[in-house]
Amino acid sequence: MKPAEKDQTPPPEKILIIAPNSGGVDKLLDIAETYELSKFGKMIRIGHSVSREDLNKKFSLDSLSGSTNKAHIKDTTVDLLREDLIKSANIVFCSSHSLGTHILERQIVKFDTVIADDASLLNEVEVLQGMKHGCLRLIMLGNRKIE
After folding, report:
1. Could you tell me which of 15, 11, 13, 27 has the C-alpha nearest to residue 121?
2. How far apart are CA 80 and CA 107, in angstroms?
3. What residues of the chain score a pLDDT lower than 50?
4. Within its chain, how far is the Cα of 30 from the centroid?
5. Residue 146: predicted pLDDT
6. Neighbouring-strand partners of residue 94
7. Which domains does the chain have, with CATH numbers?
8. pLDDT digits over 48-77, tens only?
9. What pLDDT is attached to residue 108?
10. Left if phi > 0, otherwise alpha if psi is -120 to 50, otherwise beta: which for 26?
11. Whole-number mean pLDDT of the chain?
12. Whole-number CA gyration radius for the chain
């Protein structure tokens, strides 16, 4: 019997975590804070929480770039800051709705790992939108007992 070969897959460098909605992203950010995932790199959120201003202040791309409530104003400086924030983040959280946002579409950022939380609530197109950013591994999480 031959010994098992060691897995040669490199650890993830950049992770995109997708949830079906904003509340799901809030839940994931709470878990990330509990387990101190920030020690593995910078975390950022595309989109914002409707109910959790504390999460917006810590993680929201809009809040961190100073672009809150300025979506209708074209500001090149803010756009560049937003792009830099995404490029520097190791873990990016977003809802399936935020996947098609302009900021992600024009980025050349590659996510080697895509994690789809509550994957049974996402459709194929939403999963593929996340994968088109250079995905090498896809992890789909779900609960067979949807309530």
Report:
1. 27
2. 11
3. 72
4. 14
5. 59
6. 18, 46
7. 20-140 (3.40.50.300)
8. 898 999 999 999 998 998 876 555 456 788
9. 78
10. alpha
11. 86
12. 16
pTM (2 d.p.): 0.86
Location of structure tokens 């067979």: 144
Distances (CA, A) of 106 to 34, 46, 66, 82, 140: 32, 14, 20, 12, 25
Q: Which amino acid is at 64?
A: L
Nearest Cα to Cα of residue 114 among 133, 95, 100: 133
Q: C-alpha distances in angstroms, 119 versus 124, 131, 134?
A: 9, 13, 19
Which strands, in side-by-side order, build the sheet including 137-140? 43-46, 91-95, 15-19, 113-116, 137-140
**DSSP of the chain:** -PPPPPP-PPPPSSEEEEESSHHHHHHHHHHHHHTTGGGGS-EEEES--SS-HHHHHHHBHHHHHT-TT-TTS--HHHHHHHHHHHHH-SEEEEEGGGGG-HHHHT-----SEEEETTGGGS-HHHHHHHHTTT-SEEEE---SS--
